[in-house]
Amino acid sequence: MNESVIREMTREARRHDAVNLSQGIPDEDETPASVKRAAKEAIDTSSQYTITWGLPELREAVAERYADWKGVAYDPETEVTVTCGTSEAIMSTLLSLCDPGDGVVYFEPTYESYIPGVQFAEGRPLPLDITDGLAVEEEPLRAAARDASVLILNHPQNPTGKVFTPAELDLIADVAVAEDLVVITDEIYEHIVYADHYRSPVTVDGLAERTVVCTGMSKTFSVTGWRVGFALAPEPLSAELRKFHDYTSICAPTPFQRAGVEALSLPDDYYDDLSDSYERRRERLYDGLRSVGLDPVKPDGAYYMLTRYPTDEPDTEFTLRLIREAGVAAVPGSSFYTDEGEDWVRFTFSRNRDTIDEALTRLDENRFW
Fold first, then answer.
1. pTM tops 0.90
2. What dihedral angle (degrees, nearest 10) is formed by the CA atoms of 152, 155, 165, 98?
3. Cα–Cα distance for residue pair 281/93, rounded to 1 Å
4. Residue of 341, 291, 287 lying closest to 314 (CA atoms)
5. Minimal CA–CA distance to 345: which of 3, 6, 1?
6. Going by fewer Cβ within 10 Å, which terminus of the chain is more open, N or C?
């Protein structure tokens, strides 16, 4: 098993003083001030364990908010679990609901953590490559699902920024019901969406009762280091994932759980402003990459941009040259595939406008392609 390529690129960026557009890390000024204050105040009074499933006030806030956003009711006592980030929610779910030998379907290019997650659970990876056209094809999906027990759906998707269409979600629901699949949705970018057709998978008939929604605070509130995630699922599924969460994590950081209550009380226009801000940065990075001779694909959600490059060298070699010669860090696209991948690089526009502009200036002044 390989270490995370994304985190390796961050270390390379620090080693070479490169602008880090590899890992999805926002700049510090992105976190809402009231949420920071709530965390600081909570440190004085909340330094011990919470209940393993999470602070009751936070679970109640999560249930209330997600009922508004998704129209699905979750019991905060038995169906909402606060985890150590969305990654732990996904991992606990895989470990609890994927038995050794079970097939696990996911769409590639895919977020790199799903691949070792399936390995940890001793599942069988069943990747479906949607690189060409970023569209889900019915027959390959049905064929893979016949040999599967679990389907992972990242929506919006990292690294492509794909937002699955209503027709694709209907197809996925139909297949999941027909083959009795457990669906794990990673919806951490649910509020960073630019496509009008976006809808949460659990709003599709047939999915809510078989789905574990994995999400959290990291991306929405720009607190990636706080490690507060949420797993929302029907009680039978929650009961199983909670066993693994209990023994692997005990509980998420208590002060940041208390700050989560404040975060979830922010007004609705916060989320509109968040998406609008990232859409402007998307346009800036897209135009800037094109202007320096690269070939980016404009995403419909999340804050990543896959980009083709005009040399014949492998993507890892090109990425390391970007860091060392141009002073900008990206991620080689092959890390988002189970086996052999495509020659992409992935940039993030999670950083603020000044940071993105500095990266584009360096790319322009240090072209080696």
1. yes
2. 10
3. 33
4. 341
5. 6
6. N
Rama region for 356: left / alpha / beta (φ>0; ψ in -120 to 50; rest): alpha
Does a cis peptide bond (omega within 30 degrees of 0) precede residue 267?
no
Q: Which two tokens stand for residue 72?
A: 């699905």
Q: Which amino acid is at 113?
A: S
User: In this structure, are residues 232 and 64 in contact, taking their beta carbons and an 8 Å threshold?
Assistant: no
Distance CA 145, CA 104 (A): 8
**Distance (Å, rounded) from C-alpha 51 to C-alpha 45?**
16
Contacts of 88 (CB under 8 A, 6+ apart): 227, 229, 245, 248, 249
pLDDT in tens, the chain (369 residues): 678 888 898 998 899 999 999 999 898 889 999 999 999 999 999 889 999 999 999 999 999 999 999 999 999 999 999 999 999 999 999 999 999 999 999 999 999 999 999 999 999 999 999 999 999 999 999 999 999 999 999 999 999 999 999 999 999 999 999 999 999 999 999 999 999 999 999 999 999 999 999 999 999 999 999 999 999 999 999 999 999 999 999 999 999 999 999 999 999 999 999 999 999 999 999 999 999 999 999 999 999 999 999 999 999 999 999 999 999 999 999 999 998 777 899 999 999 999 999 999 999 999 999
Q: What is the 3-state secondary structure (H, E, C) of the chain?
A: CCCCHHHHHHHHHHHCCCEECCCCCCCHHHCCHHHHHHHHHHHCCCCCCCCCCCCHHHHHHHHHHHHHHHCCCCCCCCCEEEECHHHHHHHHHHHHHCCCCCEEEEEECCCCCHHHHHHHCCCEEEEEECCCCCCCCHHHHHHHHCCCCEEEEECCCCCCCCCCCHHHHHHHHHHHHHHCCEEEEECCCCCCECCCCCCCHHHCCCCHHHEEEEEECCCCCCCCCCCCEEEECCHHHHHHHHHHHHHHHCCCCHHHHHHHHHHCCCCHHHHHHHHHHHHHHHHHHHHHHHHCCCEECCCCECCEEEEECCCCCCHHHHHHHHHHHHCEECEEHHHHCCCCCCCCEEEECCCCHHHHHHHHHHHHHCCCC
